[in-house]
Each structure stands twice: as structure tokens, then as C-alpha cells.
Amino acid sequence: MDNRIWEVVRRIEESQALVVLTGAGVSTDSGISDFRSPDGLYSRWDRNLVFNIDYFHQDPTYFYRFAKEELYRFDSIEPNVTHRLLALLESEGYLKMLITQNIDGLHQKAGTRAIIELQSEFIGRFRADGTITFANDAFCRLVGKPRDELTGASLRTVIPADDYERILLQLRVLTPAAPDLPDNEHRIAFPDGRARWLPVQ
Q: Torsion-angle region of residue 189: left (phi > 0), alpha (psi -120 to 50) or beta?
């Protein structure tokens, strides 16, 4: 084995508080593109448009096409050997914290629990039938529920009952040609009974 690998192994074994920071590159072996590689996202999508909020307000269809083709594949993608190794290091007591910029949920799917997500926006993904498929830390904190409880649950758990059917009907009529929700806000129900209006994009 390469001496550099043995050195990494030694440092992990001797560490008292191992922390790992990951970004887009950790998920490329799972089939998720990074941003700047020759075949990365920016080779297919205009970086000046896809994450430009001003352009989104002018023409949201560009971002929605990006989301459909790139982001909504995440639920069917599996963790790779790096995700699984980091989860193993945590279960063996070596890894104390994983900090990630990623929103693909693959670290969580691999089994890592001690995670800080650097994306502060609340991100929730759900199917047209209202099943929640992913919720990031910010979303979980917002609604006061753990990710394990939200994943696979219905939007009913976070949306007031009198809003649920209206939103479900809107989700079912979305198409690539008409990707906008008729109403771009809905209420989120908090555990204490309060509700807050939030934008949906």
C-alpha cells in the first residue's frame, strides 16, 4: 500500500476529534456531476443563469429544467465507497463530525448522523403524491422534526390540513412546459400549532 495511505490511516487512528469537510467531488463516483470539471454542471448549464435569482424571476423555466434533470435524480442515486467509509469511521468512533456543502443527502443515506450542512436555505424534496424524499438540517430545524421522521412521511405532517389538498392538486398538474405552482407560497405548520407562510420554488 502507498506510504501516503498508511500515513492517513495512522493519523485517523491517532486522532482525538476527526472532522471531515466534503463538497461536490465526493459524490462524483455516485454519478452526480461537480461544477467545474470538463463534464461538470457548468459544461451543460450557464453558470450566470442557473443560480441567478434575478434571472429566475424573469424566466424560472431554466432553473426548473436544471432541477428536473440534475437535482431530482438524487433520490434514486446511491452512496459511493467514500460516503460509506465516512459512515463506517463514524460508527467505529473515529469521525466526530462531518461538514458538507452538498444537498444530495448521500452522507445521510450512507448512515452518517453527525452532520453539519453548510447550506442554510431549507431544502425539502417531495414527490407529486406529497411524499417527502429529503429534508436538510435547516428544514428539519424549521419544522422541529428529525430527518428520519420526515423522510418518507407525507407533506401533511408539515402543512396545515386545510392547505394540503390544494397543494397536492397543484403538484399533480406541473409539467416541464408549465413548471410554476399557481400559488408560490404555502404555510408550514410548527409543532406548537403556529403556521408561517413560506415561498415555494
A: beta
